[in-house]
Structure formats: C-alpha cells, structure tokens
Automatic annotation (TrEMBL):
It comes from Shouchella clausii. Residues 36-133 form the DUF6602 domain. This is DUF6602 domain-containing protein.
C-alpha cells in the first residue's frame, strides 16, 4: 500500500470511529432514558460528560452540578456540567458534591436535558450566567512584568453555552439561547449538532474575552479573525454528510484556543466580598 492510500485509509478510519462513538453515546443515552425515565439525570450527565472528556484537552476539568459565582456575590442556577481551567484559579468552595466556582475560570457550561424543555426556565438559566461579572483587580507575574488588572487581550468573559438533549422538540427560541445544541437522534444513531457557525472568529474572540466591554486599544492581528468562520472547521464525508462529532471537536477546541488561559484571578475582589458579609451596604 503506497503512502497516499495509507493516508486515505487512516482518515477514513478516524471518521468511521467517530461515527461509532456517536452511535454508542446515543445508544447509552436512550437505554438509560427508557429504563429509568426522568429519574436518571445524573447517569445521563455522566454519558454526556464522557463525550466532552473525549475531546477536551486535559488542562480543563469537567465538574458536575456546580454553582458559578462572581465577586459581587451573584450566583448562577445549578449548572449540570462546567468545563473550567483550574490551573491558576481556586475554587471558592468545594466539599463533596457542593462546588462554587468563580466565573473567571469557567470556559463552557452545559445543560443536559432528556425531556420537554421549559422556555422560561432555560431563559432564566442563561440570564443568570450572562449577568455574572468578572473583576479586573488581579495581581500576577507575567513574562516581563507584574500585571495589575486584566491583560490587554482579556478583560471579561462569558462561558460558551451548550445544550445537550434527546431527540425531543427543541424549538428555535430555545436554540437561540445557546452557542451549540447537541441532539441525540435515536433513529439515525447520531448526534446532530447546531451551532452559531455564521459569525466569524473575531466575534467569538470579543465575546469570550471582552464580555460587555471592549479592548483598551487595537489588538494585533485581530482583523485576521474576520475572515474565518466556524463553518471552515466542518468535516464531511465524500457524499457531503457532516461528521458531527469530529466537526464539534475542532470547532469547540478552536474557541477554547481563543480563550487560551483563564482570566487572571482577582483574589482581592473575592476577599472583599466575604469581608463585606453582614455589613451594611
């Protein structure tokens, strides 16, 4: 077998393996759902977590059932799965199953559903997340100096929002609340993935690093990101069929590379929050 044919076989095998993994995940999700109905939420989350564990770099941690907090004391609704970079950022509180994680560390939040979705509940869940505010009074040593406050390329963040659901109706209004929607389709044995793929990487860069704010000046090479869309990361078979899970792998990890590192953690801001407890505002 010549080199070109070996390469073609390797690529075909990787695509086929991704499809087999998709089929296995879908089978597990529906088996748990059929056997236990709506009482098997934690097992369903474990199955979705396996998917993310397969594609997320090991610098990230996947935590189940967390609450996300900011330095003003605002707290999110419970988050089924949170993907965070804990390299530099302490947990606010972690004991057993109870976890409070600072917004500065969180890259992705995942809501897992297997039954009908409540639009108002989903909207409130998303609003609670977008209202969390990062603080910028951090102190850290970086390459050639002491950074006081945020670095020029990263001032605030809002996590990537992902909905994981079974093949029930997910209406367009609910889809609009999320950056990615993963739907397990039992009939086709695949995971259909819809995402905000029309926007360019510059828009994503601004959202993930300058949530509700703007850079202080021009960021070198940012204009280049205007020319690139998430659609450019789609992987398809020769017949044009999307290899969904492999596509999602490349798209999500590209966005994580735009974050690269968590925001510098503002220890003083959180110390101030807990010192203010019980005092008159």
């Amino acid at each position: 077998m010549n080199k070109e044919k070996r390469k073609q076989k390797l690529v075909a095998n990787v695509k086929a393996n991704y499809r087999q993994v998709e089929q296995s995940i879908v089978n597990q999700l529906y088996m748990k759902h059929d056997l236990h109905g709506t009482s098997i939420g934690s097992a369903r989350e474990d199955i979705w977590a396996q998917l993310f564990d397969m594609i997320i770099p090991k610098k990230f941690v996947i935590e189940h059932s967390v609450f996300i907090i900011d330095s003003k004391g605002n707290v999110s609704s419970e988050v089924d799965l949170a993907i965070l970079d804990e390299t530099y950022t302490p947990y606010i509180f972690r004991y057993g199953r109870l976890k409070f994680i600072p917004i500065e560390a969180v890259a992705v939040v995942v809501e897992c559903k297997s039954q009908s979705l409540n639009k108002d509940g989903i909207t409130n869940w998303c609003n609670n997340l977008t209202e969390l505010k990062t603080a910028d009074n951090s102190i850290a040593r970086i390459a050639d100096r002491i950074a006081v406050g945020s670095v020029p390329t990263q001032k605030s963040t809002c996590p990537i929002r992902i909905l994981c659901a079974l093949n029930s109706e997910v209406d367009e209004k609910i889809k609009q609340e999320f950056d990615f929607v993963l739907v397990a389709d039992n009939k086709e044995g695949k995971i259909n993935i819809e995402g905000n793929t029309e926007g360019n990487l510059q828009g994503w860069f601004r959202k993930l690093n300058f949530h509700n704010t703007n850079p202080d000046g021009v960021i070198k090479d940012e204009e280049f990101l205007k020319e690139i869309k998430l659609e450019d990361y789609e992987v398809k078979d020769q017949d044009g069929t999307l290899v969904s899970l492999l596509t999602f792998n490349f798209q999500l990890n590209q966005l994580l590379m735009l974050i690269n590192n968590p925001l510098l953690f503002p220890h003083r801001a959180y110390a101030k929050l807990f010192n203010a407890e019980g005092k008159d505002s």
